[in-house]
Amino acid sequence: MMSLGGDWARAWITLSAQKISEHRAALNTLDRDIGDGDHGENLDRGFQAVLPQLDALPADATPADVFKLVATTLISTVGGAAGPLYGTAFLKGSVRIAGLTVLDGQAIVDLLAAARDGVVLRGKAEAGDKTMVDAWTPAVDAAARSHASGATPTAILIAAADAASAGALDTESWIARKGRASYLGERAIGHRDPGAESSALILHAAAESANS
């Protein structure tokens, strides 16, 4: 298992880009059911734009340096709501862990909580609205419980990712209260929120990178 420092942060974002690319069509399909149909396309464009920027970072870049770069790149390149939402998540997370070269369990919880709070702040959504918050909130809660039980930082990330996946799945049975999907009323039932699904993919990338 790698130490959760700058190398891990780079690996997380690199694997996130790979996962988003692999699931681009599936994310577009989810979004086509209840939104504009371009969530996967937009996110893929953003994360592909991040990759060359990562290569330009100095070797001793901290996790916060990596996440700040991700934030600014996503905000400037991703269309629709996803860019500002993910950008704010990574930006708020980077601020919360600024100055740390290696993240311990508490720092991981703080990072995830700050990222979730950034999404809430930017999107004005809360748990139960059928948005990406419904992946992030259970992820944060699971991370906090895992940390309180004495789990390692990697185990905390695994717990968070699993909870995010479960949260994304839960959105299938809900009426949406935010975004384009909210106009569909009961017709949104049976469709998973694409932002919650992409959030779960990105959190699994964080866990897998830590566990490699």
TrEMBL record:
Group of enzyme by EC: transferase
Any one GO biological process: glycerol catabolic process
GO cellular component, one term: cytosol
Domain DhaL: 7-208
InterPro entries named among the record's database cross-references: DhaK_L_YcgS, DhaL_dom, DhaL_dom_sf, Dihydroxyacetone_Kinase
Molecular functions per Gene Ontology: glycerone kinase activity
Pfam families with a match to the protein in the record: Dak2
Keyword Ligase in record: no
Keywords: Kinase, Transferase
Domain of life: Bacteria
Record EC number: 2.7.1.-
Protein name per its UniProtKB record: Dihydroxyacetone kinase-like protein
Species this chain originates from: Glaciibacter psychrotolerans
Taxonomy of the source species: Bacteria, Bacillati, Actinomycetota, Actinomycetes, Micrococcales
